[in-house]
Structures are given as C-alpha cells and as structure tokens.
Amino acid sequence: MMTIITRVVLREEGAERWDGAMHERVAAARDKPGWISAQLLKGVDEPLERAIVGVWETREDWSAWHHDEAFRSTREELVGLEAGQMDSTWFEVVQNTATEED
C-alpha cells in the first residue's frame, strides 16, 4: 500500500472552486482500480494551504488514474486556482491502524 501526500497553496479567489473540483475528483477516484482512500485537508494556521492524502494499492494504480478522463477534466477546472506548484511526496505504508482489528 502506498500513500502520496500533495501540498499546495491556493489563490484566495479560487479556494472554493478548487475545493469543489477536488471533491469531484476524489468522488470519481473511488471506483478506480487500486484506490483505497483519500483525505482533502485545509490548513488550520494557513487557510489557503491544502494537502491531499491519497492511499493506493500501488503507484501504478495512481498513475493510471492520472490518465483517466475524470482526472483530466478536473485538472482543467484547477488551472489558475493555485498560487504555486504542487509538492508531492510518496510514502510506503508500514502500518494502517484504521483498518486493523484490535
């Protein structure tokens, strides 16, 4: 299982539209092979900062999703809403307590 964490800072005038487009993107990803879960996070101290935490079976599954039409259509909606480049980091999941039984 792999997790990718992507961080970005939004333009103030585009934050609501960005949040809506990302909500659509996550909803569309649910049915894709290898998708496990996602979180869309908003900065507490920096309200224009966002983080996306995506959990996938493999990086290949995630990559295939980025070539899907649903992903590409939301990319067009996001153009100009971000104040800078997205920064992504991959992690291999060592333990996932959310799905383990006690």
Automatic annotation (TrEMBL):
Keywords: Monooxygenase, Oxidoreductase. GO terms for molecular function: monooxygenase activity. SUPFAM superfamilies: Dimeric alpha+beta barrel (SSF54909). Residues 2-91 form the ABM domain. InterPro entries: ABM_dom, Dimeric_a/b-barrel. Pfam families: ABM. Gene3D superfamilies: 3.30.70.100. This is Antibiotic biosynthesis monooxygenase. The lineage of its organism: Bacteria, Bacillati, Actinomycetota, Actinomycetes, Mycobacteriales.
